[in-house]
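[Meeting: bench + compute handoff]

Bench side (C.D.) handed over the final construct sequence. Compute side (W.E.) agreed to return the predicted structure before the next meeting so the bench team could plan truncations. Sequence as handed over:
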Amino acid sequence: MVVNDKLKRLSDTLAFKETVDYLYLTVGLVLYAFGWVFFLLPYQLMSGGLTGLSALVFYATGFKVAYTYFLVNVALLIVALKILGWRFLARTIYGIFMLSFFVGLFQELITQSDGTLFQLLGPGETFMSIVLGGMICGSSLAIIFLNNGSTGGTDIVGMVVNKYREISIGRVLILLDVFIIGSSYFILDDWRKVVLGYVFVILENWMLDYVMNANRASVQFLIFSTHYKDIAHEIGTRVGRGITLMDAHGWYSGKEMKVLCILAKKQESVLILRIIKNIDPNAFVSIGAVSGVYGEGFDKIKMKPANPEQMKLEMKTNAGATPAGK
């Protein structure tokens, strides 16, 4: 009976987490569609990926972006399903459907009665549109990726190529972006817009990295307090972080005491400090930034395990790098 209750609680927790992930994923997709449609499309600006390719088709033929984006993605999914599997592509399929819907919806909203697209910032504001569009799209992509989502498109191509060739997904995406944006010159006949397209990609990726790294930033707490039990209980219950209890000896005072060591996300720092202040205002607290934390509740180690021959080679290299006399 106890086991069944635990399994039910675990199932409920996983279902709740899955629901929250899809909620944030939807928010990210709405923001991406908004930033891309409202700030790039009316000014005939380019971006990378399948959205950029779909825009190129729209500029050349008038065929709606959402239709091209959806149809090409369906073709890519049919090819990729056998290679990558249903489970891996589940959220990608959701992302494709939702992004196609919102891009189509927003394009309809900004299409005026004469067929032209409404320019939100006014005529001639191409550079400002690139800046705002890049910031919004980069931030929204971070939300999507942080919740294990994907917008499909060239991401699928990158994953398939990476599966069979020793070429990183990032390199494949960069090459495709360069080709797609560069080819827009033959449609738009404007080198300025090609350059602005590359500016958009750089700004978008910078914003993506900034938001993702800010979310992943971690800190280490060392808490010296006589009320360590109460503090540990509150932090463990309310924050849900593991706590290591260490023995310490004060050199000056000569007193024995306990120290709490906690690794947490940066955004959890305020709550942890508030808990400490409420329980023991006189506690001594040290907070340090850490370059990386891997394990349960944090990032996963994504490095592939080394084979025995590679390990031997690395050991020889390290041995050769040891300073003389050591």
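W.E. noted at the follow-up: DSSP finds twelve helices and four strands in the chain. C.D. will use this when planning the next construct.
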